[in-house]
């Protein structure tokens, strides 16, 4: 893959990431900026986990998710993102309401 193709793909993925962040904030009835605040409030943690999950299903590399989070002011490790994806996966498999939210969010 050429440098130009790589940059184009990265910008495309970043746009998708931003669209997901906007939709998730709307579904959770929070300001988009709150997703990127260092807070352990349950609804913000759930929103972040959902963001990681939908990005990973796109598919988007974890390192891209990590970089986009960092660009928005939220520094997070690779393993924490994987944990969030795992938690969201469990909820997606067992919670009807969560499944409904996922259908709403998918682009």
Overview in brief:
The chain has 107 residues and is an all-alpha fold.
Structure overview:
With 107 residues, this protein is an all-alpha fold. It has helices at 3-28, 42-57, 62-71, 78-94, 96-105.
Percentage of residues in DSSP E strands: under 5%
Helix content: over 70%
Gross CATH architecture: Orthogonal Bundle
**Largest beta-sheet details:** none
Mean pLDDT: 93
What would CATH call the class? Mainly Alpha
Shape: globular
Q: How many separate structural domains?
A: 1
Count of alpha and pi helical runs: 5
Number of strands: 0
Termini separation comes to: 25 Å
Succession of helices and strands:
HHHHH
Q: CATH H-level name... which superfamily?
A: DnaA protein, C-terminal DNA-binding domain
Q: Which fold name fills CATH's third level, the topology?
A: Chromosomal Replication Initiator Protein Dnaa, Chain: A
Briefly note the structural class of the backbone.
mainly alpha
């Amino acid at each position: 893959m050429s440098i130009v193709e790589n940059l184009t793909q990265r910008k495309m993925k970043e746009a998708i990431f931003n669209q997901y962040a906007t939709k998730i904030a709307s579904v959770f009835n929070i300001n988009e900026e709150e997703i990127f605040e260092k807070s352990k409030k349950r609804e913000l943690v759930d929103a972040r986990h959902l963001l990681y999950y939908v990005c990973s299903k796109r598919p988007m590399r974890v390192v891209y998710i990590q970089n986009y989070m960092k660009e928005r002011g939220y520094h997070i490790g690779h393993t924490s993102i994987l944990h969030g994806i795992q938690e969201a996966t469990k909820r997606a498999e067992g919670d009807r309401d969560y499944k409904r939210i996922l259908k709403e969010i998918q682009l």
